[in-house]
């Protein structure tokens, strides 16, 4: 297994950050053939989604999360900015991991699929993402 940790700056706004370029660069660096790419976010307030980006789906995901997990005072977990407790519930809905088949050194994603970091926590502008390749 080969592994690398990258840093992603999401800033101070909710974000869906496409990790495709970072994943492809990593796979090239490990001379990946067939196997499995595991992507892991070691944070209690972020997740990973396989989703279309650039056509509004990323904004739709954030809008749906705002409806499902409102940023208000209902949350028992209360440190950080108002409504931050909802960010700690996010990984139960948008998991902190994704596994993607790799064929011939490339992710076997569908035409419109992208691997994305989902970060609703505006208190933490820098995220770490662990990329691991397990040869087949």
Characteristic key phrases:
single chain, 136 residues, alpha+beta, Jelly Rolls, 5-stranded antiparallel sheet, 3-stranded antiparallel sheet, 3 helices, elongated, Secondary thiamine-phosphate synthase enzyme, YjbQ-like_sf, UPF0047_YjbQ-like
List the helices and strands and how they pair.
Blueprint: E1 2-9, E2 15-18, H1 20-29, E3 35-40, E4 46-51, H2 57-68, H3 85-93, E5 97-103, E6 106-107, E7 114-119, E8 126-135
Antiparallel strand pairs: 1-8, 2-7, 3-5, 3-8, 4-7, 5-6
Structure, described:
It comes from Saccharopolyspora kobensis. This is Secondary thiamine-phosphate synthase enzyme. It holds the Pfam family YjbQ. InterPro entries: UPF0047_YjbQ-like, YjbQ-like_sf. Belongs to the UPF0047 family. Strand 5 and strand 6 form a beta hairpin. The model has no long low-confidence stretch (mean pLDDT 95). With 136 residues, the protein is α+β, with helices and mostly antiparallel strands. It contains three helices and eight strands. The protein is elongated, with a radius of gyration of 15 Å. It has one domain (16-38, 54-135): YjbQ-like (Jelly Rolls). The chain has helices spanning 20-29, 57-68, 85-93; strands at residues 2-9, 15-18, 35-40, 46-51, 97-103, 106-107, 114-119, 126-135. A five-stranded antiparallel β-sheet has the order 1-8-3-5-6, with helices on one face. The protein has a three-stranded antiparallel β-sheet with strand order 2-7-4.
């Amino acid at each position: 297994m080969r592994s690398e940790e990258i840093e992603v700056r999401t800033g101070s706004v909710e974000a869906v950050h496409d990790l495709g370029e970072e994943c492809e660069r990593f796979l090239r660096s490990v001379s990946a053939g067939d196997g499995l790419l595991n992507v892991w976010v070691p944070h209690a307030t972020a997740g990973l989604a396989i989703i279309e980006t650039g056509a509004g789906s990323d904004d739709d995901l954030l809008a749906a999360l705002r409806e499902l997990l409102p940023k208000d005072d209902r949350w028992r977990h209360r440190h950080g900015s108002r409504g931050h407790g909802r960010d700690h519930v996010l990984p139960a809905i948008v998991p902190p991991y994704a596994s993607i088949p790799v064929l011939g050194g490339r992710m076997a994603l569908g035409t419109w699929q992208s691997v994305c970091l989902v970060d609703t926590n505006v208190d933490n502008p820098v995220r770490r993402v662990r990329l691991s390749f397990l040869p087949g």
